[in-house]
């Protein structure tokens, strides 16, 4: 399944980049995140609780941040498994700045299997989009609250 998103944040590119690379911001902004720990350079282990329709499950997995072009782009690789099945995907995140506003384009693919795929297939796309929207809303709020310093 393809995932895409286009977001505009009213903040300079360097501040948005710092937020996207901050383990503290990531752990606070990933919906349902219960733990988020650095285990190697640009590799994190995490536990998230995800609700898909009537199903609720915990997933343990990893996130890798690769191919960083500082303040321009990076590739995010995520995978996890839990009681409801598995999820894995990758996304290219591209940033650009115009007059102090930062635009982010997210383009990726996601694969889900197990019980969650069989039962929740129709709503997985909507849930994925909602989680991505919530992440960027939280990032925007973190920037607005000066949680990310210059």
What does this molecule look like?
The protein has 150 residues and is of the alpha+beta class. It has helices at residues 13-21, 23-29, 115-120, 124-144; strands at residues 2-9, 33-40, 43-52, 55-69, 73-82, 85-98, 101-113. Strands 1-7-6-5-4-3-2 form a seven-stranded antiparallel β-sheet. Strand 6 (85-98) and strand 7 (101-113) form a beta hairpin. Helix 1 packs across helix 4 (124-144) and helix 2 (23-29) packs across helix 4 (124-144). The protein is globular and about 45 Å long. The mean pLDDT is 89.
First-residue to last-residue Cα separation: 37 Å
Helix content: 25-40%
Mean pLDDT: 89
Number of helices: 4
**Secondary-structure class:** alpha+beta
Q: In percent, how much strand structure appears in the residues?
A: over 45%
Radius of gyration: 15 Å
Strand line-up across the major sheet: 1-7-6-5-4-3-2
Order of helices and strands: EHHEEEEEEHH
Report the sheet with the most strands, covering strand number, pairing sense and barrel closure. 7 strands, antiparallel
Unreliable residue runs: none
Principal-axes shape call: globular
**Tally of strands:** 7
């Amino acid at each position: 399944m393809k995932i895409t998103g286009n977001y505009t944040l009213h903040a300079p590119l360097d501040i948005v980049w710092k937020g996207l690379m901050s383990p503290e911001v990531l752990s606070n902004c990933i919906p349902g995140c219960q733990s988020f720990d650095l285990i190697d350079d640009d590799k994190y282990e995490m536990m998230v609780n995800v609700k898909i329709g009537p199903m609720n499950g915990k997933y343990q997995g990893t996130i890798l941040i690769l191919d960083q072009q500082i303040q321009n782009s990076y590739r995010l690789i995520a995978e996890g498994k839990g009681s409801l099945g598995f999820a894995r995907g990758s996304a290219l995140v591209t940033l650009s700045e115009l007059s102090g506003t930062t635009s982010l384009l997210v383009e990726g693919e996601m694969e889900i299997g197990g019980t969650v795929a069989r039962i929740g297939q129709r709503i997985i796309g909507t849930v994925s989009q909602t989680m991505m929207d919530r992440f960027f809303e939280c990032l925007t709020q973190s920037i607005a609250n000066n949680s990310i310093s210059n």
